[in-house]
Write a structure and sequence with these properties.
Elements: H1 2-18, E1 38-44, E2 56-64, E3 69-75, E4 90-99, E5 102-113, E6 116-120, E7 129-137, E8 140-149
Length: about 150
């Protein structure tokens, strides 16, 4: 009995840290992507600690090309494409993956082009991985976290 309890406690101890980034940011979404990408809620960056309780202000769609180009489309909460003129022309992305039980992070830049933020994803060496994007709208930083990508 003692062995079973110890094994159970060890399993819980290993699972909990691995789920640290898995809760997500903002509410869960079930929208269909307009360009075949992944959809995630956009929240104020200062609300990241709230996790799923953070208020969604926009939705973001991430598409990836085989050559490593990514595009981030910004929608309102009704999935209508937003004109990007109210956002800064550059955004910052971060590629994240687990390496030796720690998060390895590689930043990269995105630029406004047509109706999306476009950038080149750094080489992905581990899967699954996450891509966090920070946009600036006026005085507010907005974060979109695309988690569990492969």
């Amino acid at each position: 009995m003692k062995t079973i309890l110890t094994a159970l406690l060890l399993a819980i101890g290993f699972i909990t840290p691995s789920m640290a980034h898995d809760e997500g940011h903002g509410p869960k979404l079930s929208d269909t992507a307009k360009y075949g990408g992944a959809i995630a809620p956009a929240i104020l960056a200062k609300e990241v600690p709230l996790g799923r309780k953070a208020k969604m202000i926009y939705k973001g769609e991430l598409t990836r090309s085989q050559n490593g180009t990514i595009r981030i489309y910004i929608y309102d909460t009704q999935m209508k494409l937003i004109d990007l003129e109210k956002f800064d022309t550059t955004a910052t992305g971060t590629l994240e993956f687990k390496k030796n039980k720690k998060w390895a992070k590689t930043p990269f830049k995105l630029q406004q082009k047509d109706n999306a933020f476009v950038g080149k994803l750094p080489p992905v060496t581990r899967k699954p991985f996450n891509i966090d994007v920070i946009l600036r709208e006026g005085n507010h930083d907005i974060m979109i976290a695309f988690d569990h990508l492969d």
